[in-house]
Design a protein that fits this description.
Shape: globular
Strand order of the largest sheet: 13-12-11-10-6-9-8-7-14
Helix content: 25-40%
Radius of gyration: 20 Å
Structural class: alpha/beta
Strand content: 15-25%
Number of helices: 9
Distance between the termini: 40 Å
Order of helices and strands: EHEHEHEHEHEHHEEEEEEEHHE
Length: 319
């Protein structure tokens, strides 16, 4: 880490002092004076395109926080400008980099639970959003649907592939916000698999799992404190220790660095990032219309490397 920029100079200095690096009061000042290979953009969503364009034009690789953008048009432009400049751009979405999520993906790919029939995800917790930028539509693009929902959409696409259509139902606004606080999302993948997502800033479902995947021959549960799966009629088999946020961030930074060095492919490509924006856009259209809405598939599915093969014994053990 060689530099930190923040429009709050004191905040920039505090982090820079801890990391023994330089601080700046704007991204423009940092790019002009610091020797940068890559940047991590952690600003509110409505600023992502402008700041990304600034660095892409200067040949600097970009890891941009989710949501990639608050509209599909600017997301596509971010992708195209990166391609024209010959530099890497990706979206930060930590849950793909949780090790238990990666192991669950390997189990699904190996056929451990047969064909996937239903995918469920829930990110619900009570959080006072009255004074946070996340609940200001002009800044964030919406409410809980675009905020937490971007993680959910990325996870669903990771396991199910491209999504064909969505329907969104909004719950009661108990915090009095001008944006949605609680929503339920129904989705169908292009392969015909159903998915559901529960999102809320106003309730806490207190579930042990944030992902449940139901297959024709078994079930996978990815939890906050541990994960497990079982084949139908067999005992549960533990395969992970749960959600580790710091490790997830570390894994994404490693993947970003590795892709820049041409050592490994990106797990979340620019195509994935744009596709997530498209799904969220369709979800808001569905929320307004109260009907199933087709997801525009302008973005071709990303090419992914084949995951490590897992051998599954008859009793459901990973061997």
């Amino acid at each position: 880490l060689v530099a930190v920029a923040d429009v709050r100079p004191g905040a920039a200095r505090e982090l820079a002092d801890a990391a023994a690096c330089d601080s700046y009061d704007s991204h423009a000042a940092m790019s002009a004076r610091a020797n940068l290979d890559a940047v991590v953009i952690c600003t509110p969503p409505n600023t992502h395109p402008e700041i990304s364009f600034h660095f892409l034009e200067r040949g600097t690789h970009v890891l941009c926080e989710k949501p990639f953008s608050i509209d599909a048009a600017s997301a596509f432009e971010m992708r195209e400008r990166a391609a024209c400049a010959g530099v890497t751009i990706t979206m930060a979405s930590k849950f793909r980099y949780v090790e238990d999520v990666s192991r669950a993906k390997e189990l699904v790919t190996s056929g451990a639970i047969g064909e996937v029939v239903l995918f469920e995800n829930a990110f619900t917790s009570r959080v006072d959003m009255s004074a946070r930028w996340n609940s200001v539509r002009a800044t964030s693009g919406g409410g809980v649907l675009i905020d937490n929902g971007t993680h959910s959409v990325d996870l669903m696409r990771y396991f199910l592939g491209p999504l064909a259509e969505v329907q969104v139902i909004e719950g009661k606004r108990s915090q009095g916000l001008a944006v949605e606080e609680t929503v339920h999302i129904f989705a169908r993948s292009t392969g015909g698999v159903m998915g559901t997502i529960d999102l809320s800033w106003s309730i806490d479902k207190e579930s042990a799992n944030f992902i449940s995947i139901y297959g024709s021959e078994g079930t996978i549960e990815v939890g906050w404190r541990g994960s497990k799966y079982r084949r139908t009629g067999a005992a549960w088999v533990a395969f992970g220790d749960g959600y580790d946020k710091v490790q997830a961030f570390r894994n994404q930074l490693d993947n970003f660095s590795g892709s820049i060095m041409k050592d490994e492919p990106l797990l979340i490509t620019a195509d994935d990032a744009c596709a997530s924006v498209e799904v969220v856009e369709a979800a808001y259209a569905s929320l307004r219309r109260s009907q199933w809405t087709t997801v525009s598939r302008t973005v071709k599915p990303a090419r992914r490397s084949s995951p490590r093969r897992l051998d599954i014994a008859r009793d459901g053990r990973v061997v």
